[in-house]
Amino acid sequence: MANKSMLYLTKGIKLIDNYNIYHYNKNELSVLIIQGIFLCILLGYLFYNNILGVLVLLPFTFLYVKNKKTYYVLNRKWQLTKEFKDGLSSLIAALNAGYSVENAISQAANDLKQMYEKESLIITEFDTIVSKLQMNQNTEEVFHDFGERSDVEDIKNFADVFKTAKRTGGDIIRIMRSTEKTINDKIEVESEIQTLIAGKRLEVKIMNGMPCGIILFLRVSSPGFLDPLYGNLSGVLIMSAILAVYYGITKATEKLTDIRV
After folding, report:
1. Helices and strands counted in the chain (H then E)
2. d(Cα 136, Cα 248) in Å, to the nearest integer?
């Protein structure tokens, strides 16, 4: 594959070649850049109180945008996992109705189009699988490719077990039901975890905003109180050290509350 991030098929389907690589669309990129610039201006004003401080921090906008990709990658994979569960449900229903595996995939693709938007991940993937099967590609290899590209553990495990069952005559329906149950249990646990830590995440966000809030409060309520920390080398070094510690604590608390199954 010449392009390592996207693969374009003849039917106009845009297939993601690697789910670990995320490309922002124009709206996402614009919003993140604006957020990053605003954050740099705010921190530059609070910690350095001059335009030079803002200009020094502005390049960190790119770091902010880059770091957000991890969030988008994880969310996209989680969305694919949930949609894949519905794809398995449709496949099981089609197989129970007497369809062969290949025809069941085609039927499942049609069923999914009644459940999701045309641009959804699972519809793109199933349409691609159907297209590959029509070109006489092996079913096991198609699912294996899907699992490798997605790098989603449940999909990769399903592809491996499916390959073994297909070659040894195993119970494919039972395998699909087992995978569906595993994913469904994982989704339920994830939902419970997110509900339990929602309050803690809010507390963390408030705590992360407190240092900036305190500095802003002091500057508004007591003008001149922080003047010794502005406009001189020692003050710049102190505020830079505080900012570095503040950034480290913020990243640490984000990781502590980013609990996933």
Report:
1. 9, 2
2. 53
